[in-house]
Amino acid sequence: MIRVLLVDDQPLIRSGFRALLDLEDDIEVVAEAGDGSAGLALIKEHLPDVALIDIRMPLVDGIEATRRIAADPALAQVHVVILSNYGMEEYVLDALRAGAAGFLVKDIVPEDLLHAVRVAARGDALLAPSITRRLIDRYVTQPLPTSKATGLDELTRREREAVALVAQGLSNDEVADHMVISPLTAKTHINRAMTKLRTRDRAQLVVLAYESGLVTPRSH
């Protein structure tokens, strides 16, 4: 059973998401909160698998709430998916740097939300393809200064190749197809790269891949 906690200051949004999630046999909404401060307290109490957190809220916003969750070892199992009415790149980057496993806009179709919750619960969360393309476009037109990433030199050639493909928004199966290896081997390469680069999840891996210079816009 996937345990989900909702944090959003709009009651109608929360009730709509809860009604949708409660229809699924493998998903349970364990609690909900109307602001980030209350949400953090409930997350510590319930330790959900997935926390769906609105980006703009009173008291503690979604970015700061995510940052505090990522910094707390006791909450390592909690995968944060940021919800927003906006798909602007600066919000996406802030969310991923804070430690979010994914970023979704609220106008997604129900099937995509359910899919995102299940993917996040597996620890394989990543951005929707449209958001990934926006990030890539951002780096193409306005690259950020590169920074040295701890562990970058430790990556093998195959791990670097896998990270580059992940940065293009590819799934494990797609990475496997490109590298002509099994999905399990692809996942192993990606997980080892995340460990060496000390990234919390695949979403942070994408940002680091660009900001470290491991992947450059001209690769696309």
From TrEMBL:
Keywords: DNA-binding, Phosphoprotein, Transcription, Transcription regulation. InterPro entries: CheY-like_superfamily, NreC/VraR/RcsB-like_REC, Sig_transdc_resp-reg_C-effctor, Sig_transdc_resp-reg_receiver, Tscrpt_reg_LuxR_C, WalR-like. The modification 4-aspartylphosphate is found at residue 54. It holds the Pfam family GerE. Residues 148-213 form the HTH luxR-type domain. Residues 3-121 form the Response regulatory domain. The keyword Phosphoprotein applies. This is Response regulator. It comes from Streptomyces tendae.
